Amino acid sequence: MLDRMKGPTLKSRDEIAIMDRANRIVVEILEMMRDMVKPGATTAQINAMAEEELAKRGAKSPFKGYAPMGLPPYPAVVCTSVNDVIVHGIPNRAKLQEGDILGLDFGSIFQGFVGDAALTVPVGKVGPKADLLMQTTRECLELAVEEMRPGRHLGDIGAAVQEHAESRGFHVIRTFVGHGIGRKMHEEPQVYNFGKRGRGVPLREGMVLAIEPMLCEIGSKLKSRLERVGSNGILQDVKTDADGWTARTVDGTLAAHFENSVAVTANGPLVLGK
Ligand code: MF3
Ligand code: CO
What we know:
Helix content: 25-40%
Bound molecules: 2-amino-4-trifluoromethylsulfanyl-butyric acid, cobalt (II) ion
CATH topology: Creatine Amidinohydrolase
Number of domains: 1
Strand order of the largest sheet: 7-6-8-13-14
Radius of gyration: 18 Å
Distance between the termini: 38 Å
Order of helices and strands: HHHEEEEHHEEEEEHEEEEE
Shape: globular
Low-confidence stretches: none
């Protein structure tokens, strides 16, 4: 099909300006969520606040009701992923505990365009391993963003994430990927968090990608699977709860996730909503 050769849709400057506003809403509300994170708070409270704030800004949620491939519709506006939950945790009434780490993944639809960003935050004071995991995952995102320039390749993004994560002894989750973003939350291409420099489609001005590295600590099950397939092999590195959404590490080890929507411009990477 000719369609398959079209590749990612390129966004105009005006469209990127709207996407910047959609992401500004996401980033602002994520900051408000971050302020609510403390021992004793619940992710249900955080979700309720975020839903109200979206409405105040005339925005909608791309997450709530989202139901890909026969999954039950996602029931909330934010994904709240505690400790060994990698992504897609569902807000609930359990109290956050001192020492937990909490992934907050949030989106908006504003003037027909989708914004999408995520971060992982500590609940009170966390241990040094949790801190290093969060810091390294944030750095992986920053290094990947630096690759968002005309003439680089999709594989440069994955390679930047993988090199940094593995240099610190962490595993890059393979099961989930970043994505093109625009009028739809998930557009072409898929953005792998591992790969080889110079491979994949060349990046062009007007591409907007949601880059979202997910890293975890390596436990014994994951270690033996990695030994079997090698560092670029395909492996099962996620187990999903009965709710169909909550995605956990196979060993119960900690995971972290950071995400930004980023445009390729002639002047270099533009992190939307910042
Ligand atoms: N930010 C995630 C993504 O890029 C969240 C989507 S899952 C949802 O895929 F169910 F919450 F929508
Ligand atoms: Co995303």
